[in-house]
Amino acid sequence: MKKILLPLILLAYANTVIANDYEIKITKVQLYNLGVKTGKLKTINHIPLLYAPAKVVIPPSQEYIVSAAQAGLISKLNVTIGDSVEKNQVLAHINSPELLSLQRQLLKANGEKQLARASFQRNEKLLQEGVISDRRWQESRSRYNSFAAEANEAKQLLEIAGMSAKDIKKLADSHRLSSQLNIRSPIKGVVLDRMVVAGERLDILAPLYRIANLEQLWLEINIPQERMSSIKIGDKVLIENTDITATISLLGQSVNTQNQTILARAVINDQQSTLRAGQNVNSQIIQGSDKPTYIVPNTAIAQNEGKAYLFIQSSTGFVVSPIAVIGKQQNNSVITGNNDLIEGIEIAIQGAVALKANWLGLGGSE
User: Fold this and answer.
1) What is 50-59+216-288's CATH number, 2.40.110.10, 2.40.30.170, 3.40.50.720, 1.10.3720.10?
2) What is the pTM of this model?
3) For residue 269, what is the DSSP state?
4) How far apart are the C-alpha atoms of 9 and 157, rounded to whole Å?
């Protein structure tokens, strides 16, 4: 009967201690025997929410397909995959018979425009002198406007074909036709793909290169749908094994039927050179805290009746302080608590189980 009553007496005593006494008196020798070690309490500026796989992607607005605006034969390629290019840099040369026809149209339209302008200006002077009628002057003006529109159309067709404004002006001044079409880069960026080889015949609008500006990249993060309620736009994202951070800018509105995750998009902060488009990374989403938050080893926390406690060193032993665990970060926990928690105070970081037993009266103090 005594063996049965003893655990019941200890349990009743433990409940009394929890309700009324939050201080443990213990000597240094007893601490040593119990294997208790102390360390300083450290603050933390964020709450770790979860780890999730992510993929580095290029924003759609920063990716371009460079194509041939005219059919022809590739005579030379100047860049290949991985090369950095500047805006308007010549990427390839194409021989295009159709380009000659467009150039002839421009020169013919320019010539007719000049003749019509000379006739219009002459008739305008004769009208002022009263030599011709107003109708004849209007007819010459209409003819000039018509030829000017045709010349402008021919110029725009050459621009669409890929000729630069500089090359068009050179053609208009020199009247020298050329079948060579220079394919230029629309942006400053990096060549991601090359779809053709030298000597290949191209149809109109055939793609040659895929080029992207990599100064700004995104993360596409797959978040379990049951965790989406804790994520919000503006939360920070840490990328494993790097110092690079990102900021969540979009939370998806649909669930992936295959893995039951929701897509979150994060914009990678600042320029960086270690991440690559298409790379798979591990990410951690963190969130700012509006109250003092601390990080402690998991071994510093004692659990009792569904509540968590921390042991703060005092002059006579330890003070038992209730805490709330709000996050996990590898072997550490992120906590908040009452006013007893101040950065730099000494806490028990090892031996919390022994201190808990001593506190509840379930173990000896020797």
Assistant:
1) 2.40.30.170
2) 0.65
3) P
4) 98
Give dist(CA 142, CA 246) in Å, integer. Answer: 61
CATH number of 17-44+291-360: 2.40.420.20
Helix (H) or strand (E) holding 268: strand 261-268
Residues 77-109 pLDDT 10s: 999 999 999 999 999 999 988 888 899 999 999
HEC readout, 38-101:
EEECEECCEEEEEEEEEEEECCHHHEEEEECCCCEEEEEECCCCCCEECCCCEEEEEECHHHHH
The string over 200-237, giving b where at least 16 C-beta atoms fall within 10 Å of a residue's C-beta and e elsewhere, is eebeeebebbbbbbbeebbbebbbeeeeeeebeeebbb
Q: Which two tokens stand for residue 283?
A: 């990410």
Q: Provide φ and ψ at 360, rounded to 5°.
A: -85, -5
Neighbours of 9 (CB within 10 A): 11
pLDDT band of residue 341 (cuts 50, 70, 90) is: confident
CA-closest candidate to residue 180, choices 76, 75, 95: 95
Rg over alpha carbons for the chain, rounded to the nearest Å, is 39
Count of CB atoms within 10 A of residue 88's CB?
13
CB atoms within 10 A of CB 130: 7
As a whole number, the mean pLDDT across the chain is 86
Are 256 and 221 in contact, with CB atoms under 8 Å apart? no
pLDDT tens figures, 115-124: 999 999 998 8
For the chain, report the end-to-end CA distance as a whole number of angstroms.
27
Architecture of domain 63-92+179-211: Beta Barrel (2.40)
